[in-house]
């Protein structure tokens, strides 16, 4: 009966009874495995208190600073700094110079500060070394081509191969080419030698010697046609008498090889190369003989004990060459690790980029020409060709058929030649201020001439590009169509004469004429990569139906215009030349939608390109944080219902004039803030919508763009004035009657602000026949019902006029909750008495804030919340609720997949401000207390889980606040113990204790949350090692690891080692472990000589991080395969990182590294000792028990293979540290004071190399 010393008797009986049953092998192995595992009790690692790091550094200051390797013992100076700066794509800031002075609203002020302030980035000088080996600045971990290893045992000795086949081995081919070689035959005279053409390879062998092989062609065949060993050659000379370009290789035994090149240049190259090799061989032989003579002269008398070294010296140079050959092209052992070979960067977070303006796929739309069939020579100059006889104006926009909306602003173009444009100069209408024609370059806006742009830069978000054309208002659309379509009855000059008269009277009015479209999806792009199709063309120009002018009607036309059987569109014969192309790399002279020049920009330019604003839907995924100042308002007059009005006799050709005013007094003037049309000033005081002929209920599609002032108040409003335009031209009428072009037929107005916010979307307004002073007070419904002697409403004050307003501003918000929160904060800052609980109410209301508003104003909102958090004095409820709002915003960003904006905010925007009150605490102090308070609440588990899941944001904010506090207050120069108050250290410890149970107890309930907080906490403590008392941080790490147990499941063990790996990846991991000797009494040094590199309590105390990692690894090695693999992987990755760290490449520095990790060799030795005791169980022909404990020995041998190569050649050096072994041997000697043990290394299983 076999003996089972490790099994209890009850398990033994159960085991032996089931041996005879067939098909139970797997069951048997599993039961035995469990029995053996249960027989080994995992003991919890002893808690070792770390040393007082700062005190040790202070006490050993002289010793450390006198050490030549002191940079491995202390942190570098100026390890942390702040980089201030901001890159802008515009020539100047988009924020006006006096914007902050004009702003009165707190929200507007904070927006302006955000857009004009610089980034504040905390720069860690050695941050590239703070991750794993994949993040190191040296990225050449993996060799381009790993050379193949050829061993003698693999060679086929049955084949009689020539020794020249070694030319493909180490050393490689030095030179190759065609040569002619003379056949050696003693019966033939020298002059009659026959030369044969062969391809020669000059190669170096592994022993350093050189060989010249010849083959029939360039391909190296198995059989060489001949070889010449250059070691036997002593000279090379030319021999032109033998053959042209011939030379002779003379050997030591006075034998010669005759070769000939094909050109003189090739011959010279071969001679130079061969002479260098022969000279090198000669010098080596001379040095050998000299060394041999000196060795013989200094020979010892004791020749028996010390035999003559002459024989050894004879090949000393050969050994030296072999050594150099082995080092040539030698790879770092860690390059062969599978993870290094794979080099997977999937787990590494991408670099955090700063906020930037969102730019989709962009292209240039360049309008070049628009002409009808009716052309005439209008200029007397010979260079001017035929042109249109009247002015036409174009506007382009993008439409989205999928979502049925217009998604870009209008881009207006004036393609009229100067001769046609001059027709508008005589227009002197009273309402045309700022719209008169002028020569380009009259004035500058942001340094840009107010000239008309001929091309626009657009973002691709829509499948349709629509062009609309307008001409001067001069009567019926049918009459104008007849004029342009059939010009048989009238000549072009007569039409031009009429148009000139119309321009003099109605030059400021426009009317719809036609439209054309181009499908972007199928015609603009050739492929999915976004290649523009320059061959695409617009559709024919269709006549504009006056009853189908709205965007909805246009979308229907676009959906059906390719189906002629359903639509009867009248085509206007015209040529439209619009080019759409990619933006070149050197694209210059472009301005934003606010006319701010974009880099690069030439000051003396005439033609500029204007970016067209993209009107994206109010959806979170299309939103992005605002980074530039922009304050535009788009006004769209839609419809006027005047068919039932009885006030005005004539109200048919109705024109709508839009003005923006800041007062409703009688003498108030409109503000010059409306963007004008091409040919006029950039900013004007009014804008007119297109006029429809004889239509009492006209529809409008015009877009009026307004530059809003920085400060808005209750008096700011839009004023709409309606005019009846007389289009009749009667030469017999009196001049007074002719001058009456427009007749006022009503007014409408709308205040811009309601409850302090801008009101947008569609509005229905009543129309008044007059405009009394103080008319803004008559706009509400109640005042209309009461009636007023001053206002005369049309059609009983019914809402006759429909408009739509779109706000495109980065300084104003329409969200009610956000507006009220900032409004209350402004009152408190102004000195108003703070009502208890009022601020908490507004903070809680922020949870109802719209997600798109939250994203757009993300930096402004977050900074204000941190500001409120910092200025909290005594109310803990305010701090907790403020943190809860932060948590809500962070969770919403993650849910929308926009967490990269949060990382950008923390890195570039966030800046902890000084508290206003004397008793107030810094941001990091208040935030730590709030986080601990939330985690200790037992009721709100949803908030706790969110805080754990997204804890990285708060820990990153803590770290940056601490860094900015130290740098701005100049406390970075203080001793670490004096940098932060004791209260902050207590708060950090309290937060740590609050986190531990959520990780170690609730890990099954919240696996994702517990893993995230575990990793975030490790990263934060790693940063604390840079700022705080390192001894205190060591204690925090110790307390956290003590919360884990050896009996923890696999998930918790992974947490523990992930935590330790993150901490040990600190950029100054070596100085943190103090790789120095700690003095002991002489007697104690003798007693502890065997424990010099063992995991003793003293070792773990002096070298805290590495000691803790090795102790936890030694315990994990007694567990199952997955846990063993996790522990060994952490150790291996740490070794790989240090092996490739360019700061530790010198051998002396390597010594200190190996000394820290040498206790791992003792662990390896203990594991192999355990393997010898645990022999496999043999029962018949079945082997049991090998799948359990001996497996850990195999895993450890494989995982620690690299560590074994760091065992010293001479373990006891002067410094008591270690130096690395060579990679070449296949056996590794583990040497200490008590034993010498040989451990075989398994190259096959781990590295993939062949063992010798």
TrEMBL record:
Residues 426-449 are annotated as: Disordered. One of its GO terms (molecular function) is guanyl-nucleotide exchange factor activity. Residues 630-808 form the C2 DOCK-type domain. InterPro entries: C2_Dock-D, C2_DOCK-type_domain, C2_domain_sf, DOCK, DOCK_C/D_N, PH-like_dom_sf, PH_domain. SMART domains: PH (SM00233). Residues 172-279 form the PH domain. It holds the Pfam family DOCK_C-D_N. Gene3D superfamilies: C2 domain (2.60.40.150), Pleckstrin-homology domain (PH domain)/Phosphotyrosine-binding domain (PTB) (2.30.29.30). One of its GO terms (biological process) is positive regulation of filopodium assembly. Belongs to the DOCK family. This is Dedicator of cytokinesis 11.
């Amino acid at each position: 009966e076999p003996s089972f010393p490790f099994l209890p008797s009850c398990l033994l009986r159960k085991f032996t009874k089931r041996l005879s049953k067939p098909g139970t092998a797997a069951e048997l192995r599993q039961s035995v495995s469990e029995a053996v595992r249960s027989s080994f009790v995992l003991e919890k690692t002893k808690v070792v208190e770390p040393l007082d790091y700062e005190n040790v550094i202070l006490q050993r200051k002289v010793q450390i600073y006198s050490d030549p390797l002191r940079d491995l013992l202390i942190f570098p100076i100026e390890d942390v700094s702040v980089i201030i700066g901001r890159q802008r794509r515009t020539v100047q800031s988009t924020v006006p110079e006096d914007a902050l002075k004009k702003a009165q609203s707190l929200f507007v002020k904070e927006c302006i500060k955000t857009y004009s302030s610089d980034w504040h980035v905390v720069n860690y000088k050695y941050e590239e070394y703070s991750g794993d080996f994949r993040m190191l600045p040296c990225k050449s971990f993996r060799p381009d081509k790993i050379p193949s290893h050829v061993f003698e045992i693999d060679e086929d000795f049955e084949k009689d191969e020539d020794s020249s086949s070694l030319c493909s081995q180490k050393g490689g081919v030095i030179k190759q080419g065609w040569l002619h070689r003379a056949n050696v035959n003693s019966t033939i005279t020298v002059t009659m030698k026959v030369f044969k053409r062969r391809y020669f390879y000059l190669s170096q062998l592994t022993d350093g010697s050189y060989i010249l092989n010849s083959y029939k062609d360039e391909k190296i065949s198995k059989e060489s046609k001949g070889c010449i060993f250059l070691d036997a050659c002593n000279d090379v000379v030319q021999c032109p008498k033998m053959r042209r370009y011939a030379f002779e290789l003379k050997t030591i035994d006075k034998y010669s090889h005759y070769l000939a090149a094909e050109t003189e240049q090739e011959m010279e190259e071969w001679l130079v190369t061969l002479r260098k090799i022969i000279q090198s061989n000669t010098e080596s032989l001379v040095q050998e003989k000299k060394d041999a003579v000196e060795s013989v002269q200094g020979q010892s008398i004791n020749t028996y004990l010390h035999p003559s070294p002459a024989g050894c010296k004879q090949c000393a140079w050969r050994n030296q060459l072999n050594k150099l050959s082995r080092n040539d092209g030698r790879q770092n052992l860690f390059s062969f690790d599978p993870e290094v070979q794979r080099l997977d960067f999937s787990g590494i977070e991408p670099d955090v980029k700063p906020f930037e303006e969102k730019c989709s796929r962009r292209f240039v739309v360049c309008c070049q020409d628009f002409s009808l069939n009716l052309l005439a020579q209008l200029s007397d100059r010979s260079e001017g060709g035929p042109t249109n006889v009247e002015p036409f104006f174009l506007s382009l926009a993008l439409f989205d058929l999928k979502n049925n909306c217009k998604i870009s602003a209008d881009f207006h173009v004036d393609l009229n030649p100067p001769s046609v444009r001059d027709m508008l100069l005589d227009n002197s209408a009273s309402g045309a201020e700022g719209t008169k024609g002028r020569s380009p370059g009259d004035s500058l806006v942001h340094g840009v001439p107010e000239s008309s742009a001929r091309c626009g830069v657009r973002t691709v978000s829509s499948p349709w590009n629509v062009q609309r054309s307008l001409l001067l208002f001069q009567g019926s659309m049918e009459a104008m169509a007849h004029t342009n379509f059939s010009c048989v009855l009238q000549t072009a000059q007569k039409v031009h004469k009429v148009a000139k008269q119309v321009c003099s009277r109605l030059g400021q009015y426009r009317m719809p004429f036609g439209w054309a479209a181009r499908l972007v999806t199928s015609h603009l792009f050739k492929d999915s990569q976004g290649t523009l199709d320059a061959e695409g063309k617009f559709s024919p120009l269709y006549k504009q139906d006056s009853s189908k002018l709205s965007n909805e009607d246009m979308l229907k036309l676009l959906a059906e215009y390719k189906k002629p059987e359903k639509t009867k569109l009248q085509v206007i014969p015209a040529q439209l030349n619009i080019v759409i192309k990619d933006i070149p790399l050197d694209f210059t002279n472009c301005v934003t939608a606010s006319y701010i020049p974009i880099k690069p920009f030439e000051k003396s330019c005439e033609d500029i390109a204007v970016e067209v604003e993209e009107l994206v839907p109010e959806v979170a995924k299309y939103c992005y944080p605002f980074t530039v100042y922009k304050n535009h308002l788009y006004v769209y007059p839609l419809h006027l219902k005047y068919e039932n009005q009885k006030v005005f006799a004539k109200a048919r050709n109705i024109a709508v004039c839009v003005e923006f005013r800041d007062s409703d007094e009688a003498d108030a003037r409109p503000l010059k803030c409306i963007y004008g049309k091409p040919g006029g000033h950039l900013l004007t005081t009014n804008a007119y919508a297109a006029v429809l002929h004889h239509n009492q209920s006209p529809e409008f599609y015009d877009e009026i763009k307004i530059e809003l002032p920085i400060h808005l108040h209750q008096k700011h409003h839009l004023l709409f004035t309606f005019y009846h335009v007389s289009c009749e031209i009667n030469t017999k009428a009196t001049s007074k009657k002719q001058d009456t072009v427009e007749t006022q037929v009503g007014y409408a107005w709308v205040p811009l602000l309601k409850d302090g916010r801008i009101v947008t979307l569609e509005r229905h307004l009543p129309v008044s026949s007059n405009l009394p002073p103080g008319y803004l007070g008559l706009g509400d419904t109640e005042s209309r019902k009461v009636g007023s002697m001053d206002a005369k409403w049309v059609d009983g004050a019914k809402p006759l006029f429909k408009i739509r307003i779109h706000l495109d501003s980065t300084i104003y918000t329409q969200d009610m909750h956000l507006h009220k929160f900032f409004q209350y904060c402004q009152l408190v800052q102004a000195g108003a008495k703070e009502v208890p609980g009022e601020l908490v109410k507004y903070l809680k209301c922020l949870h109802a804030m719209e997600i798109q508003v939250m994203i757009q104003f993300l930096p402004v909102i977050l900074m204000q919340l941190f500001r409120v958090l910092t200025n909290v004095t005594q109310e803990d409820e305010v701090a907790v609720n403020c943190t809860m709002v932060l948590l809500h915003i962070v969770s919403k960003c993650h849910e929308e997949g926009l967490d990269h904006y949060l990382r950008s905010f923390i890195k570039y925007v966030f800046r902890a401000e000084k508290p206003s009150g004397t008793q107030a605490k810094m941001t990091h102090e208040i935030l730590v207390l709030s986080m601990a308070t939330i985690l200790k609440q037992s009721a709100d588990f949803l908030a706790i889980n969110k805080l754990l899941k997204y804890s990285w944001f708060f820990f990153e904010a803590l770290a940056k606040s601490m860094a900015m506090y130290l740098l701005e207050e100049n406390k970075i120069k203080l001793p670490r113990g004096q940098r932060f108050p004791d209260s902050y250290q207590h708060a950090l410890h309290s937060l740590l204790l609050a986190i531990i149970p959520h990780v170690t107890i609730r890990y099954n309930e919240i696996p994702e949350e517990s893993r995230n907080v575990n990793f975030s906490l490790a990263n934060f403590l790693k940063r604390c090692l840079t700022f705080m008392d390192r001894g205190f941080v060591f204690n925090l790490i110790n307390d956290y690891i003590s919360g884990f147990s050896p009996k923890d499941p696999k998930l918790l063990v992974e947490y523990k080692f992930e935590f330790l790996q993150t901490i040990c990846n600190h950029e100054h991991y070596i100085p943190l472990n103090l790789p120095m000797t700690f003095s002991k009494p002489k007697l104690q040094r003798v007693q502890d000589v065997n424990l010099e590199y063992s995991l003793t309590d003293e070792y773990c105390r002096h070298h805290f991080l590495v000691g803790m990692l090795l102790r936890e690894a030694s315990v994990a090695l007694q567990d199952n395969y997955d846990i063993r693999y996790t522990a060994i992987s952490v150790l291996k990755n740490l070794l790989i990182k240090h092996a490739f760290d360019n700061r530790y490449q010198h051998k002396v520095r390597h010594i200190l590294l190996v000394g820290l990790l040498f206790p791992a060799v003792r662990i390896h030795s203990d594991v192999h000792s355990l393997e010898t005791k645990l022999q496999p169980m043999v029962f018949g022909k079945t082997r049991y028990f090998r799948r359990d404990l001996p497996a850990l020995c195999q895993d450890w041998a494989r995982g620690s293979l690299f560590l074994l190569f760091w065992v010293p050649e001479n373990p006891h050096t002067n410094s008591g540290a270690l130096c690395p072994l060579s990679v070449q041997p296949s056996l590794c000697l583990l040497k200490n004071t008590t034993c010498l043990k040989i451990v075989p290394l398994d190259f096959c299983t781990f590295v993939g190399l062949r063992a010798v």
